[in-house]
Amino acid sequence: MRTIRFGIDIDGTVTCPTSLLPHINQQFGCNLVLDDIREYDLTKAFDVDRQTFWEWYQQAEAHIYDTSPAQERAKQILDQWQKQFELFYISARGNEVLDTTVNWFKREAIPFDHIELLGSHEKIEAAKKFSVHAFFEDKHDNAVDLHEELDIPVILFDTPYNRKPIPNGVIRVNNWIEANEQIKRLFV
After folding, report:
1. Which end of the chain has less neighbouring CB within 10 Å, N or C?
2. SS3 of 170, please?
3. Residue 62: Cβ-neighbour burial (10 angstroms; 0-12, 13-18, 19+)
């Protein structure tokens, strides 16, 4: 019986953190690469009005999510984990893209026990509600807040936009192989 439950963010954690860039580059005539994204707010990386960006993003969101590639080794590690852990995906995506999200997981054959789309980056209440034992995240302040509020380990997938200092209990990793090593250390 699987009694340990993981809370897992989707975008930038299960999917590649570069997923949005080809869409942004095409729409706004940019040449952004991941190293250009130094803040979670993408509009700080190039010259665009925030309102214009968000209007475009809302229209393009489902297509972006549908075409996002999974991070290297994510499926392989999550397949292994599903044998011993419950996998609860807790995302800031809104419910309007639930069908797109579920279809993506099925098409990519990435295992899941539950998908919760919050429509907000406020993940603490959902993590409490589902009694997760660890969380996987790419957004710095979410990782720190989840760890400090819930006193659980949080695996932070390293990106240029999340390189602020982290407290003990937030564990920075470069990839899913390193995440798996941390989980073995913590839970196996």
Report:
1. N
2. strand
3. middle
Mean pLDDT, all residues of the chain: 96
What percent of the chain clears pLDDT 90, i.e. is strictly above it?
Answer: 97
CB within 8 Å of 77: residues ≥ 6 apart: 176, 177, 179, 180
pTM of the model: 0.96
What share of the chain in percent tops pLDDT 70? 99
* pLDDT reading at 83 higher than 90: yes
Evaluate whether 95 touches 117 at the Cβ level (below 8 Å): yes
What domains are there in the chain, each with its CATH number?
4-16+70-187 (3.40.50.1000), 21-67 (no CATH)
Among 15, 14, 27, 16, residue whose Cα is nearest residue 54: 27
Residues in Cβ contact with 34 at an 8 Å cutoff, skipping those fewer than 6 apart:
17, 18, 21, 159, 160
CA separation for the pair 18, 154 (Å, rounded): 21
Q: pLDDT digit string (tens) for 109-128?
A: 999 999 999 999 999 999 99
